[in-house]
Amino acid sequence: MIFITFFLIAQGFITYDEGTFRAFQIVNKGFLCFGNRGKTQDIKFRDSFENIPQVILIPELFDIPGTKVDYSLEITQITLTKFTLSIKCFDGVVYGIHYKWLSIDDARIQVINNFNIKNFQQITIDHSNPNALKYLINVIAFSFTGSVNFEVKVSEINAKSLTIIISDQQNSLSNLTSLSYQIILGINDIFQIYEKKISSLSISNSFPLIQWSWFLLPFQGFQHDGINALKFKKEYVLSVNSLAYEFSGGNFESYQSCCCIQTFYYIPCWMKYEHITQATPLEIGSVLIKQLFDSKVDYIQSFKVLIDGDNQIAKDSGETRIIIDEADKQPILNLHVKCTDQETVKINLIFQNSNENSITNPILHSCSGSYQEVIISFSLIPTIVAYQELIVDIQETECQISQVLTNQRQSRQHLFFIQKQ
């Protein structure tokens, strides 16, 4: 894997880093992994991050000479200045594994780690960014007792969760004894993903270089015959404006040759680490107020919030998350308020300027007579095509609506709040 990297240092902190890890190999560090032997190694970043970064491992070389192997490999700790990688071999031999590692401090990227799993059933996992709908699957290690043919796949992904399955293409999953993989989630702008490939000994086509991006070759799965050794490495050819790659088999100082390269599934891609699209807050187009005197109030607290044409409702005390679909070009947010005689509803709109948030003169609405409920409809205008994440905070006499903006940092932008007086 080729990295063309410029380090961005702001206020003494780095925001991304990369390197090569080769300590788990007999030829480099004299470490032979077998017979319950293990090793733990710290990998230091070039400087300190401000927040705990996401760490990605991309396998670059496998040198496993036997027809079966049982080993564990995992990231055991990540701090501001380093991460820790651990390997332990229980059965068989590992002569060496190389990794390229990437670390990045950006809330638009989420890495889901599943290390050393032995249950290969379907799982569903929540994710934190509704716009992180592109992903990379990255198998980093697996153990086997015979032939295997598997792929890690995302069968479904939406604004709140994703479902992961392990495919079994030749009914050989019983020979797969453990598996470590990562799912790397990001917004559309982060990844440029090419077609899925199957391993070949020929050199690839050229890929034009993309500035501020890493070129990656993550594995989705492997087809291993359980007879020959698992031995291959990636090699790269870099020119002025492009790069190409190839996989090679053969002897990597383990004093054994292999007759053929094993089959594996992978997807070439570019991954941005700088100059990523910024999320921007919603704008308020209009506010409409209407008062009902014979309404059927179906909520216990003072407020209820819902989006036109959507079944998401916030009506319980505390915070509720609401996701507005990216296809909704001008969503209407309806805020219901219990309103009795002698009460006043105060509507505070919050506008953003270059220096600070400012609150406009509040809109006051007096409740009178037999009216029981006020409905305030806000027309919202998205400033970017994306899922919009709102947080509704309902208290006894106040309801506040905020928007979650996920950029390099995740922040909350207050939009408006309603008070009963």
From TrEMBL:
Q: Which Pfam families match?
A: H_lectin
Q: Which GO terms describe its biological process?
A: cell adhesion
* GO MF term list: carbohydrate binding
The residues covered by the H-type lectin domain are 40-103
In Swiss-Prot or TrEMBL terms, this protein is called H-type lectin domain-containing protein
Q: Which organism is it from?
A: Paramecium octaurelia
Q: Taxonomic classification, please?
A: Eukaryota, Sar, Alveolata, Ciliophora, Intramacronucleata
